[in-house]
Write a structure and sequence with these properties.
Blueprint (H helix, E strand, L loop, with lengths): L3 E7 L2 E6 L2 E6 L3 H6 L9 E5 L7 H12 L3 E3 L4 H20 L10 H21 L5 E5 L6 H8 L4 E5 L7 H4 L5 H8 L4 E4 L2 H15 L7 E3 L4 E6 L6 H9 L1 H14 L3 E8 L6 H14 L7 E8 L6 H21 L7 E5 L4 H10 L2 E4 L9 H7 L7 E5 L12 E3 L4 H13 L2 H17 L2 H24 L1
Parallel strand pairs: 1-4, 1-6, 4-5, 6-7, 7-8, 8-10, 11-12, 11-14, 12-13, 14-15, 15-16
Antiparallel strand pairs: 2-3, 9-10
Helix pairs in contact: 3-4, 4-5, 7-8, 9-14, 10-13, 11-12, 11-15
Bound molecules: adenosine-5'-diphosphate (ADP) and 6-O-phosphono-beta-D-fructofuranose.
Length: 472
């Protein structure tokens, strides 16, 4: 039977060492949490890195066996590959460039060469598993070369590629020394998907200007075949988030958390530690808000969860220090014996805790400088069991295209964020409910299952169309 092979750099679980034993924990990040709900069906398989260096053949064997039971197959990366392919080219070259932080980007030939080598390693792992009728779905910027590598090995196979982060404008993308090779890598796909129409438009413009292939209604005609480029805004597993938030246990926990905070109003922010998430800018806005509206001092608390991410990369280390310093300064300035303006937690939390925090919070602050989609804001909306609550959302997140009932802000405009905080904290409940229920309808309809079937249906359509083009 034909199967779906999902390939991404990171598996939806990550290995951790506990008391000498290797255990699996759920990975954070939108790709893992979003697709985590769908890959276990039938013979489907997810191929990716288990998040740790595993060198000993015995351990590798054990990890492989354990993962196999859960429909996963590991690609073991070496220390050098993690340093140069994952932390290096993926997260010090591509990530900053694609998020419009090109001043942070490093351009090093050695990192590029290891990126090519690691993509080849993923290609070999996939080729070993792929049958002629299987569909291969490659995810994200760590694997931009994989579609064309697979095409070379398996010329007739069906390959979809989805990018979870923004695609920058041509003027930014062209800064990359390996721009042509990266685009050619992606063009090995039959279908290339992005979260938004703008990402798609930027990609097509770069393909046109750098590789010289024009497009018509998203179709690019190569000499050997045609491929389609389209936008597919990713959703969440709405029923999962809405269902868990409604449970008695989550309600009980939400009450306990809330009582312990000694605040009339609670705001929540949940992010990976990343400069693209706008965490310092949000803290500056909150500090300014407390100074401008002193009547909220002692009354509003921001619960800020930051999950550690890419902590070997220099810019992430610097950001961690900046956040620690700002939180300390703001709390030092405004706290009193019974109240802290910010409750800051630098760790990952299980879904039940996250759900209780979403359920407890009157306001969610999602203020990235740039974000492909952002699933946290959708998780918050899905968790609002009584339709109260206000979402403050950055225009720079892909999700803002769908969630126009949020209070939309530009994260560079601190004064606008200050006023958005005031508006959110004083919004009458009946108005909150109008906006929240409209956002819930959108997220419920365009959920993760809808997203997967839209992508898969379009991929099948491309294959049929390619056949009819070849015979006409
Ligand atoms: P990104 O993919 O850039 O990390 P998203 O907002 O799309 O951003 O996805 C982040 C995912 O990680 C969400 O599903 C969110 O619930 C999860 N997450 C973020 N922070 C934490 C945390 N502290 N504990 C548990 N999960 C977290
Ligand atoms: O959604 C974007 C993304 O970079 C995914 O590709 C990735 O798995 C996730 O964020 C978390 O990042 P990382 O895998 O580097 O921890």
């Amino acid at each position: 039977m034909a199967k779906l092979i999902i390939v991404s750099n990171r598996l939806p679980v990550k290995l951790q060492e506990k008391e000498g034993e290797l255990i699996f924990k759920t990975s954070e990040g939108g790709l893992a949490t979003g697709l985590g709900s769908i890959y276990k069906e039938g013979d489907n398989i997810w191929i990716g890195w288990p998040g740790q260096v595993v060198e000993e053949p015995e351990k590798q064997k054990k990890v492989t066996e354990d993962l196999k039971k859960e429909n996963m197959l590991p690609v073991f990366l070496t220390e050098t590959e993690i340093k140069e392919y994952y932390e290096g080219f993926s997260n010090e070259t591509l990530w900053p460039t694609f998020h419009y932080f090109s001043q942070y980007a490093v351009y090093e030939q050695q990192l590029w060469e290891t990126y090519v080598q690691a993509n080849q390693k993923f290609c070999d792992a996939v080729a070993e598993q792929a049958g002629p009728d299987d569909t291969i779905w490659v995810h994200d910027y760590q694997l931009l070369l994989l579609p064309s590598m697979l095409r070379e090995k398996l010329p007739d196979c069906t390959i979809g590629f989805f990018q979870h982060i923004p695609f920058p404008s041509y003027e930014v993308f062209r800064l990359l020394p390996w721009r042509k090779e990266l685009l050619e890598g992606m063009l090995g796909s039959d279908l290339v998907g992005f979260h938004t129409y703008d990402d798609m438009r930027h990609f097509l413009s770069s393909v046109n200007r750098i590789v010289g292939h024009g497009s018509m209604h998203g179709w690019i005609n190569l000499s050997s075949r045609s491929l389609l480029v389209d936008s597919f805004p990713m959703g969440i597993d709405y029923e999962k988030y809405a269902g868990i938030a409604k449970t008695e246990e989550v309600g009980r926990r939400a009450n306990i958390y809330r009582n312990n905070l000694h605040a009339e109003k609670v705001m929540i922010a949940v992010d990976r530690l990343d400069y693209s998430k706008g965490i310092p800018q949000r803290l500056d806005a909150f500090e300014k808000f407390l100074a401008k509206y002193p009547e909220f001092q002692g009354k509003v608390t921001l619960v800020m969860l930051v999950v550690p991410s890419r902590d070997e990369v220099e810019k992430y280390k610097e950001l961690k220090e900046e956040i620690d310093e700002k939180v300390g300064r703001i709390n030092g300035k405004f706290s009193d014996i019974n109240w802290n303006p910010i409750q800051y937690f630098y760790r990952s939390y299980p879904l039940e805790t996250l759900s209780a925090l979403y359920r407890m919070a009157d306001v969610a602050l999602v203020t990235p400088m740039r974000d492909g989609m952002n699933l946290v804001c959708k998780e918050y909306v899905a968790s609002r069991h009584d339709q109260s609550g206000v979402l403050i959302l950055s225009e720079m997140a892909g999700a803002s295209k769908e969630l126009s009932d949020a209070i939309l802000i530009n994260p560079n405009d601190i004064n606008q964020m200050v006023e958005a905080l005031h508006e959110a904290l004083t919004m009458p409940e009946e108005i909150q409910k109008v906006h929240m229920s409209s956002m819930q309808e959108t997220i419920k309809r365009y959920n993760i299952h809808h997203w997967v079937s839209m992508f898969m249906d379009r991929l099948s359509y491309v294959k049929i169309k390619q056949l009819s083009m070849a015979t006409s």
